[in-house]
Write a structure and sequence with these properties.
CATH architecture of one domain: 2-Layer Sandwich
Radius of gyration: 21 Å
CATH class of one domain: Alpha Beta
CATH topology of one domain: Ribosomal Protein S5, domain 2
Distance between the termini: 17 Å
Order of helices and strands: HEEEEEHEHHHEEEHHHHHEEHEE
Helix content: 40-55%
Shape: globular
Number of helices: 11
Bound molecules: alpha-D-galactopyranose
Largest sheet: 6 strands, mixed
Strand content: 15-25%
Length: about 400
């Protein structure tokens, strides 16, 4: 689908030509999983798959929304004064949440608008289609109403929508990566202070491969919230013996010294993952700065193993993808990416071995799981932006 097709759709649906065009990416996380809400580091990048939005402002206070990905939901019509969550409003709740919370920040959205949305992020793949949509709406409102608001505030508003409006207790990684994405760069972000730096992704003769399990992510949100609360319990207990604000304030060495306070094997494993993953992420960033992709890949593998054994968020689908990747010639590293419980894995693979890699991993997955995975080569792209 190209912009011209979207313009035609807009005109057909809203009976008026579209105005400006916007794009907001999805994201992958190279390493640093389930560390963001534990005050640790993450290393994500924006990808060139994402969500397009076309808008025309209106004279009245009506908001009309249509997504080409949810044609069955049809045209949803709202007004700026009624922005409460409504289950039946499906995907438009993310839009309503952004309008509501941006308005609460004294940004005066003084007219309604029509928006057409189209996303090419594989559906439910854990590549952050919801944060992509939140940041799309954030940047549309910022530009169309000339708001003086920076990317960081938009990312925090998106997170608030996710946490308070939608009810998923997620961290800041997705919205931040999507708002701040930069072509061919990863972002090392300290989720405690929100200090960040760009790191050049010099992939040399390799590519990043995204492997979608195509597993339905049922109950994923409740399991995510459960992991988060297990970490909070572990933190509380550790705080009785050492002064820290977040699990990731501890080094692995300190953790080993104080872990006796946790007294619950599950919570201990969860904390061990967060703290060891944080150390891996810092180390991996240094390796990337020196273009040492080989050692970087090994840390990706270790990350997956910890997510499998300690955090227990992989499941057989992601494990098959990672473990099959590890066996293939030319694969530098592979791991699940995002929340887990289905969704996607990523791998760094040398270009010359790519064809065989794709063939073998697809075959292994189909044999073990019974249905196909979808596999794509990813490109690292820019953050949410106006296109015209
Ligand atoms: C989801 C959340 C993020 C982060 C990851 C796990 O993508 O939205 O905030 O916690 O899971 O690293």
């Amino acid at each position: 689908m190209v912009i011209n097709d979207l313009k035609n759709y807009f005109e057909k649906i809203f009976n008026i030509p579209s105005g400006n065009q916007y794009f907001s990416p999805g994201r992958i996380n190279l390493i640093g999983e389930h560390t963001d809400y534990n005050g640790g580091f993450v290393l994500p990048c924006a990808i060139t798959f994402g969500t397009y939005g076309l808008i025309r402002k209106r004279q009245d206070k009506k908001v009309r929304l249509y997504s080409l990905n949810f044609k069955e939901v049809g045209l949803i019509e709202l007004d700026l004064l009624h922005l409460e969550y409504n289950r039946n409003h499906s995907w438009t709740n993310y839009v309503k949440g952004m309008i509501k919370y941006m308005s609460e920040e004294n940004l005066n959205i003084n007219s309604g608008f029509d928006i057409l949305v189209y996303g090419n992020i594989p559906n439910g793949a854990g590549l952050s289609s919801s944060a992509s949509l939140e940041m799309l709406i954030g940047v549309i409102l910022k530009e169309e109403f000339s708001f003086n608001i920076d990317k960081k505030s938009l990312a925090l508003t998106g997170k608030r929508v996710e946490n308070e409006y939608i009810g998923v207790n997620s961290g800041i990684m997705d919205q931040f990566a999507i708002a701040f994405g930069k072509k061919n760069s990863a972002i090392i972000l300290d989720c405690d202070t929100l200090y960040y730096e760009y790191v050049d992704m010099n992939l040399k003769d390799n590519v990043i491969v995204i492997m979608n399990t195509n597993k339905r992510r049922e109950l994923a949100d409740s399991k995510y919230n459960e992991r988060r609360s297990q970490c909070e319990k572990a933190l509380l207990k550790l705080q009785s013996v050492i002064k820290i604000n977040n699990l990731c304030d501890l080094t692995l060495e300190e953790f080993n010294k104080y872990k006796y306070a946790i007294k619950n094997p599950i919570e201990e494993k969860r904390a061990l993952h967060a703290i060891s993953e944080n150390e891996r992420t810092k180390e991996a960033t240094e390796l990337l700065k020196y273009d040492d992709l080989k050692s970087f890949g090994q840390l990706m593998n270790k990350s997956h193993i910890s997510l499998r054994d300690n955090y227990e968020v992989t499941g057989s689908e992601l494990d098959v993808l990672a473990e099959s990747s590890w066996k293939q010639k030319g694969c530098l590293g592979a791991r699940m990416t995002g929340a887990g419980f289905g969704g996607c894995a990523i791998a760094i693979v040398s270009k010359k071995d790519l064809d065989l890699f794709l063939e073998n991993v697809s075959k292994d997955y189909k044999n073990a799981i019974g249905y196909e995975a979808s596999i794509y080569v990813a490109s690292i792209g820019q953050g949410s932006t106006k296109l015209n």
